[in-house]
Amino acid sequence: MSADPFLGEIQPFGFNFNPRGWALCQGQLLPISQSTALFSLLGTTYGGDGRTTFGLPDLRGRSMVGVGSGPGLDHIAWGQRGGANEIALTVAQLPAHSHIATLHAETKAGDANNPQNKLLAITSTNIYTTPDPASNKTMHPESIVVNNAGSGLPFSIDSPYLGVYIGIALVGVYPSRS
């Protein structure tokens, strides 16, 4: 923190209080009549009605990012808020994948005519055998339905963080444009 900060400069503090001439960036509204110079810099970018009040940035639980865009990045506008603390994926967002299924057959003859909820088994009569069966035959490939796994509940996507106080200079040198 410089001795003469720019008006509207944002700084993190390693201590747990608000220094004189600074306000914490917690989205509070200020009267325009008491901070006209700061209002001339911020306008209603962070809130307020623009007639009697204007807002300070609310950085509680948020990270700051630079405005603009770059290769492979979305455009970020001044004052734009984005992101989420958690997300729930839909089936459409999951990558294509497969499962290997191992099926086991009963070694004794099956005793049911209806295969529903039954194990694979050899037949009780030899209707599906040949006089000279060959070994290692591959069965006809079929799709197997696998039920959904997981709860479908949102999960945290927070980056590692360290909580500090972040303030904005209410007094200071009015920044000149270059």
UniProtKB/TrEMBL annotation:
Phage tail collar domain residues: 8-63
Cited InterPro entries: Phage_tail_collar_dom, Phage_tail_collar_dom_sf
Coiled-coil residue windows: none
Annotated protein name in UniProt: Phage tail collar domain-containing protein
